[in-house]
What does this fold into?
Amino acid sequence: MLSAYTDFIRIRFLTMLAYRVNYYSGILIYMLNIGVYYFTWQAIYGDRGEIGGFTASQMTTYIAVSWMARAFYFNNLDREIATDIRDGSIAIQFIRPYNYLFVKMMQGFGEGLFRFTLFMIPGMILALLLFPVRLPSDPIAWIGFLVMLFFSFLINSQLNILTGLMAFFVENNEGIMRMKRVIVDLFSGLVIPISLFPGWLSAIMQWLPFQAITYLPGSVFTGRTQGTGILDVFGIQVAWFVALLIPIFFMWRAARKRLFVQGG
Amino acid sequence: MKAIEVERLSKIFKVQKSRGGLKGALQDLFSRQYNEVAAVNDISFSIPAGEICGYIGENGAGKSTTIKMLTGILVPTAGKLNVGGYVPHEEREKFVRNIGVVFGQRSQLWWDIGVIESFGLLRKVYGVSEQDYKKRLDELVQRLDLGDLLSRPVRKLSLGQRMRCELVAALLHNPSIVFLDEPTIGLDIIVKTEIREFLKDMNRQHGTTILLTTHDLQDIEALCSRVIMLDEGRIIYDGGLDTLKTRWGQGTRVTFQFGAACPLPRLQLLTSELHVTWTADNDLHAEVLVPAELNVSDVLAKIVGQPDIAITDIKITETTTDEIVRQIYQTGSASTGSAEGTVSHA
It folds into this structure.
């Protein structure tokens, strides 16, 4: 049975590999995004030394690593689940002796592996060549970042699963999915680091899961969080990962009862 | 041993009512109103192991909903269910290892990968040993003639090819109970026949219990000894196909074409001792309905050979199952379809 789950990872990886050309343009778009933010921040910094606890050089690294992390953790599980629900093919998932959400997670991970090796790493190399990104010298920072990156993927996928499952309860969750995407990009600190938010908003952000996706791993990579601080921020990620399992469990259970297979 | 037991099963769906107009739309935003629709309404039946049972009814009669409850996809609103020793929706993951399901209108193969890869993945999902898998696959591939399809991606298969692969996908783990929801929909007559033969053989060799829904009554005639007929969520007939035919079959229709005018009263007079009904559009054409208990030859004997009647053509037609079923669907009940009274099953 376990080998079936790993097969879902393998097959999704191979399927993505077949469409790899699509992702070459993705790398360029991400470079463009990094470029836009890089030059904007350059202009904002001028000759100021520090904004919101970030030096100009840390900010460049933060932007690059945040976008490249997104290249890895991003997936369309929400859309895939919503489509399965809307067109009724979810029925097929229930006649199989496996857990649908776990399979989705595995497929997401297969996609993640593809994105990591063929999108994030080449993208990061390109970013290193184009922008003055400073890689951490401390091996602890590297290990901490990579582990936290994996949890970024888990938490982002959990949010995607929750958003996708909404399709059970509302007729059209297109709007919710779009809103989720904007919220994750903004509140995770991808667009603006959370420490630059107004005080009240950044206080709220401390209590939401989004910072665990981009901001916390980014702060480890830029060296703003070091030593035992890494364990603290990693702890926040793990706590959110566990906490998000609860609504998923209840939503899935409620969905089972509500399930109404469309199209006969 | 019973493979499937269903007792007082119901499934009620809440369907949102939308009120008309702008005002209605605004009201809907704040307080929704629901209509309760009983897709399946208090049905009971049981199917012994090894039986092939047909499950028929008009569109929207509740066939698919029943199948979805029996396969553990939907949770029933009320009633008791037991399929192969399990309550489907309660022990879903364990239960589905023992059943095979084919939805004619939905693919269960993975669209992007090759057929054989799909099968390999299903082997792992169902935890079938490499040895059993090889044996079973060889048998199915040979029987359904899939040899050269195996390496193709699913999206490149024709409907007939795909449906044969779907059957293999549903049967790889050798389930003892198989549900088929419109398995022959959209297929040409050759593939249809092939699939029917295959199902019959499987039932004979492995004793597989099969429940199938279909709109093609030839599927039923070819496969099923028993039919359950559903209308508006209720069972209106449950019994043998033969009983259905003899009870609602209106006998035999004989159509005459005459060379010279032959008035209706004359014909009626000739067959006055027999309880047959004549109808005629004109003097050159007449039809007689012979009830099942009479012999067609007796009627023919009275007419044929009369010196004054010149017959140019005789056509004898039996009432087909299609006609019977159409009649039952139209009247909405199997008990009013005939003057012979109600059926004990209904």
About this structure: The beta strands of chain A are 50-51, 54-55. The interface with chain B takes residues 1, 3-4, 7-8, 11, 14-15, 18, 88-89, 91-92, 94-99, 256-257, 259-261, 263-264 of chain A (CB under 8 Å).
